[in-house]
Amino acid sequence: MKNTRTLELLVGLFVAAGLAALFMLAMSVSNLASYGGDDGYVIKARFDNIGGLKVRSPVAASGVRIGRVTDIQYDLEGFEALVSMSIDPQYNVFPIDSSASILTSGLLGEQYIGIEPGAEEEFLVEGSEIDITQSALVLEQIIGQFLYSKADE
Amino acid sequence: MVNHLLDRIQGLGRSTMNSAARLGRANVFLMSVFAGLSGMLVRPGLLIKQLFSVGVQTLIIILVAGLFVGMVMALQAYYALVDFGAEDSVSVMVVLSLLRELGPVITALLFAGRAGSALTAEIGLMKATEQLSGMEMMAVNPIERVVAPRFLAGIVSMPMLAAIFSAVGVLGGYLVAVELLGLDSGAFWSQAQAKVELYEDLGNGMIKSLVFGFVVAWIAVFEGYDCIPTSEGLGQATTRTVVYSSLAILALDFVLTALMFGK
User: Fold this and answer.
1) Touching check for B194 and chain A: CB below 8 Å?
2) Is residue B205 a contact partner of residue B95, using CB atoms and an 8 Å limit?
C-alpha cells in the first residue's frame, strides 16, 4: 500500500482533474460564455407566421447576435403570434421604427429574427413593440403563389 | 402428474419470494449504509483510500476509452454530415452525444466492470474469510468501516469520471475533426457553443452520472455483502454485479432520458 501522502496527492489530482474537465466542458463547449443575457430589455413583435422559430432562437442585427427569443404566444385578439425577445443591454439604441423579420440561416438552418434599424430619434425600450414585421417564408405558400401567377399568364 | 405440476408452481413461488426477500435486504442494507455514512466524518482517511482505488485507478481506462470514443464519433459524424455540406456540425453531434448519453453511460459501464466488480470481490472475500464477523466481534461496525466508504467513493467518483470522459472525448473529436479531416477549429468550438446548453445538456448528463454512480455502488457493495461466502458464491456475486449494473444503467438511462429530454 502506498503511503498516505502519495495517496492523498493522487486523489487530490483526480478530483482536480474532474473539476477541470467540468470547467472545460462548461466554458468551451456549452453556452456559458454567451450567458449573462438575462439582464437585457424585452421587446415584442407580432407575426402572421413564425415558421420554425423557437424559444431561445437568436435575434440578430446585420448577422450579429444581439439577443434571444424568450417567449412565443398566440395572441387571440389579433390572431397573430406574439414573440417576446430579450435584447442585450449594450444594444439599447435601436430606433422605434426598426423592423423585425424572420429569416433562415442557410438553406436548412435554424430560423432567427433579424432586426433592421429604422430612422426615428426615439429608441426601443423595455416593453416596446415592433410594428413593422415580416413573417417567415413558408415554402408551400411561395410555391402556391408561383403556380397562381403562372396560371394567370 | 399433479404432483409434478405442484412442484413447478412451488418452485416459481419460492424464486419469487427469494427475489422479493433479496430486494428487501438490498433496501434495508442501503438504509444501514446511509446510517453508516456519518462515520466518514470521523475518519475521512477511509474515504480517501477508497477514492484512490475506485476513482484514480479507473482513470486510465476512462481516459483511453473517452479519447477513442470521441475520435470515432467525429469520424462517423463527418461521414454522415459531409453529404449535406454540414460537416461543421460534427462538433455539435460529438459534444451532444458525449454529454447527454455516451459520457455517463459508457463511463458507468466501464466503472461497473472495473471498480464495481472489484468492490464486490473485496467485500465478498472479507465475508468469506470472516473478517466482517471478526470486526463485529470487536464491536466495529463493518458497514460503517468497510461498506460506507466504498459506497460513497463510488458516488463521488462517477461524476468526476464521466466529466473527464466527456472532456477527453471532445478533445479526441477535435483532434480528428480539425487535425485529421481539416475542419475549421473556430467553427468546431463555436458550433458547439451555439447548440449546447449548460444546464440542459451538461447538467443533466452530470445528474445521470450521479444516479448511475449511486446504482452501481449500491449493487456492488450489496452483492459483496450478501454473497454466499464460498469461492463459487463469490464468483457468482462478482458476475451478478457486472450484469445487474449494466442492465440497471441501460434501463435507467432510458427512463432518465425520457424524463429529461423527452418533452
Assistant:
1) yes
2) no
- Please name the member of A15, A17, A31 whose beta carbon is closest to the beta carbon of B196: A31
Q: How many residues does chain B have?
A: 263
Q: Checking phi first, is residue A51 left (phi over 0); if not, alpha (psi -120 to 50) or beta?
A: left
Nearest CA in chain B to A27: B193
pLDDT at B262 over 80: no
- Which residues on chain A are in Cβ contact (under 8 Å) with B159? 18
Q: Kindly report, residue by residue over B84-125, the tens digit of the pLDDT.
A: 877 788 888 999 999 999 999 999 999 999 999 999 999 999
Beta bridge partners of A87: A41, A67
- Judged by CB atoms closer than 8 Å, whether chains meet at B160 and A19 is answered as yes
What's the ipTM? 0.76
Assigned C-alpha cell, B208: 445521470
Q: Per the CB < 8 Å rule, is B166 touching A25?
A: yes
pLDDT tens, residue by residue, A82-92: 999 888 888 88
**Tell me, what amino acid is at B98?**
L
Backbone angles phi, psi at A81, to 5 degrees: -85, 135
Strand order of the sheet with strand A58-61? A129-130, A41-47, A80-87, A64-75, A58-61, A111-116, A99-104, A132-134
Inter-CA distances, A92 with A39, A55, A122, Å: 12, 21, 11
CB contact under 8 A, A30 and B206: no
- Residue A143 CA to residue A149 CA, distance in Å, equals 10
Are B167 and A14 within 8 A, CB to CB? no
Instruction: Mark yes or no for CB contact B160/A31 under 8 Å.
Output: no
Domain ranges of chain A: 4-33, 37-143
